[in-house]
Write a structure and sequence with these properties.
mainly beta; 11 strands; 0% helix
């Protein structure tokens, strides 16, 4: 059974950059859709970025477009989220997610489509 573990969170200042890492164990992510979601205190979990099963298509929330980049290294079974120009509103717990079954791009932003989740890593951005 595939398990995910995130790392790389921390306390930063506005304008800083940070890279989150998600490592998979117990199986491969080579044929999975992968994504990052985040949940700020008191808010619902929201979509951040996704990479489709083929690895060829990328999707981003409008709030992070042009600042965040999702990538994957299938050889290492890892998924990354590069976050640049961080803002206080990016403060949240960030979760890595994967879906071993095919997800149409029309619903790739829906958290219900993902059946494997990490435990989350806290990112706090101060002004």
């Amino acid at each position: 059974q595939v398990q995910l573990a995130e790392s790389g969170g921390g306390l930063l200042q506005a304008g800083d950059s940070l890279r989150l890492t998600c490592v998979a164990s117990g199986g491969t992510l080579n044929f999975a859709s992968v994504a990052w979601f985040r949940q700020a205190a008191g808010n619902e979990r929201e979509f951040v970025a996704a990479n489709t099963q083929s690895g060829l298509s990328y999707h981003y929330a409008d709030s992070v477009k042009d600042r965040f980049t999702i990538s994957r290294d299938n050889a290492k079974n890892m998924v990354y989220l590069q976050m640049n120009s961080l803002k206080p509103e990016d403060t949240a717990v960030y979760y890595c997610a994967a879906a071993l079954n095919f997800i149409p791009t029309t619903v790739i932003r829906n958290l219900d489509e993902y059946d494997i989740w990490g435990q989350g890593t806290q990112v706090t951005v101060s002004s």
